[in-house]
Design a protein that fits this description.
single chain; alpha/beta; Rossmann fold; OB fold (Dihydrolipoamide Acetyltransferase, E2P); 2 domains; nine-stranded mixed sheet; 5 helices; 19% helix; 28% strand; globular
C-alpha cells in the first residue's frame, strides 16, 4: 500500500491546524474513538479563540464543548494524554512529529488555500480541507469547505472549489461582518469575544489605527492582544445574530466538515483495508 512502509498506529489521527475548523474535525474524531494529535505553529493566529484547540499553545490548555486539549512537548506526554481522554497539541508547524507518531491518518486542516507540504506518503490515509490540494495525487480525499450545496462533499479526484475570498453570509452580511487590519501593526484589543457592539464601536487598534464595527452584533472572533499582523489580515468577525452562545460552540460549518472527515476516514479504511 502506498504510504504504508512501516507499522502504523491504528486509529491514531494527526490534524495539522487547530483553528476552529481543525477543532471541529478533532472534536468529532476524538468523540468517535480516535486518538487525535494536533500540530500547530508557535503563535497561532486564530480568530475564534474560544472554540479553537490552538489556543492551548498559548494558554497551556483549553476545553471546547467538553473536550480538553493540552499542550505537550514529548511523545510520552502524547500517549499519557490519550489515556486520560484528552487531545494533545504540539508546536510542530513542519510536521516532524508525523514521522515519529506514525499515524494511520494525517489531515491538513490549516486552510492555507495551498499545499504547504502534504503528500500521500505521510500516512495510509491522507485528507485535506479546502482548495489547494489535488485529490488522488496530493492526498487521498479533499473535503469541500465552500458553503453551499457541496459543503462537506468528499472529493476523490481533482480539486475543491477555488477560494472566493468572500465570507459566507449571515443574515445577509458577508464582508461587513469581518474585521481586517487597516495597516501593518500590533493589535491592542478594547473589547473581547462575546462582547456586544454597535456599528462604529471601536473593537481594537492596529498600531494607532482604530478598527470599528461595521454592523451591530456580538464579537464572535477576535485575534489575541499584542499579535503582529499585516494590512488586510482577518483579525475578527461580528455575528449579526447577536447570540453569545455561538461564540463558545463549534459552528455549523465546522461540524459539517468534521462529519465529512469522519466519513472519509471510515470509507478509506474500508477501501484500503487498513
Amino acid at each position: 500500500m502506498k504510504g504504508k512502509r512501516y507499522t502504523v498506529n491504528r486509529n491514531v489521527v494527526i490534524v495539522r491546524g487547530g483553528g476552529d475548523m481543525g477543532t471541529g474535525v478533532a472534536h468529532k474524531l476524538h468523540r468517535s474513538g480516535f486518538q487525535v494529535l494536533i500540530l500547530e505553529m508557535g503563535k497561532p493566529l486564530v480568530i475564534r479563540r474560544k472554540v479553537a484547540f490552538a489556543q492551548a499553545v498559548i494558554d497551556g490548555r483549553i476545553t471546547v464543548e467538553g473536550v480538553k486539549a493540552v499542550r505537550v512537548n514529548a511523545k510520552k506526554d502524547i500517549v499519557a494524554l490519550w489515556k486520560q481522554g484528552k487531545v494533545p497539541i504540539v508546536v510542530d508547524p513542519q510536521g516532524n512529529m508525523i514521522r515519529e507518531v506514525k499515524a494511520e491518518v494525517v489531515i491538513d486542516a490549516t486552510l492555507a488555500k495551498r499545499n504547504t507540504g502534504m503528500h500521500r506518503d505521510m500516512a495510509p490515509i491522507t485528507i485535506a480541507l479546502g482548495p489547494g490540494f489535488r485529490a488522488g495525487k496530493d492526498v487521498d480525499v479533499v473535503i469541500e469547505t465552500n458553503r453551499g450545496h457541496n459543503l462537506g462533499r468528499l472529493i476523490f479526484k481533482g480539486y475543491a472549489e477555488p477560494n472566493t475570498g468572500i465570507p459566507g453570509p449571515i443574515k445577509g452580511y458577508t464582508e461587513e461582518r469581518v474585521l481586517r487590519a487597516p495597516c501593518d501593526g500590533k493589535i491592542r484589543t478594547v473589547l473581547d469575544i462575546g462582547g456586544y457592539v454597535k456599528k462604529r464601536d471601536v473593537i481594537c487598534y492596529c498600531g494607532k489605527e482604530p478598527v470599528r464595527a461595521e454592523i451591530d452584533g456580538v464579537i464572535r472572533g477576535l485575534i489575541m492582544n499584542t499579535m503582529e499582523v499585516k494590512k488586510g489580515f482577518k483579525i475578527g468577525d461580528i455575528d449579526p445574530r447577536g447570540i453569545r452562545e455561538y461564540c463558545t460552540t463549534i459552528s455549523d460549518k465546522a461540524r459539517a466538515i468534521g462529519g465529512a472527515v469522519l466519513e472519509a476516514i471510515l470509507y478509506m479504511k474500508r477501501v484500503k483495508k487498513t
